[in-house]
Glutathione S-transferase C-terminal domain-containing protein (Paracoccus broussonetiae), 194 residues
Amino acid sequence: MKLYYSPLACSLADHIALREAGAVFDLEQVDLQTKRTLAGRDFAQITPKAYVPVLILDNGETLTENIAILDWLAAQYPKLGGAGAFARTRLLEALAFISTELHRSFKPMWHAASEADRNDARPGIAAHFRLIEDGATSVYLFGDDPTVADFYLFVMLLWAERFGVEVPPRLAALRDAMRDRPAVRTALRAEGLA
Ligand SMILES: N[C@@H](CCC(=O)N[C@@H](CS)C(=O)NCC(=O)O)C(=O)O
């Protein structure tokens, strides 16, 4: 497998999942400005979407979109997916909320023309975090062990830290717990973020 990523981008969730799973994989950094990979390839030839994450599977399939990649990884490595008959449905529910509501609400933080636009976006993001905290069952979203949804949420919590967005206490604790995990430390180091 090979993951195309950019440091601190949402692809960090997939990177952490691969490390938590103990998977064998290659990593290649993408410059999202020039759309070139570190090896100098045109990223648009790897995916016409030209955004990360991209996971190339061992059978040659190219997989994009966090929800699909994280769901696929949870299916391959069940410890990343939570327990119980309804677990996958709850996992997809959480991944969909993180992707389509929370992740999307960070767009002004990365791309806004002005600080005023960023200030306008902060309360909405904080409200999304509060909703997620209300649904969390333990240290992590679904208990004492993290799932792929926690990995995605963790990236959003790192973004909150970077952009000064208020985070409720139990999600701040989740961020700390994630940071202490050896696989997470390794992933952060590999992306130059430690
Ligand atoms: N719909 C995609 C969005 C992925 C995405 O937003 N990737 C960002 C980094 S977090 C990116 O590569 N942006 C560069 C660009 O759009 O030019 C997903 O959910 O995986």
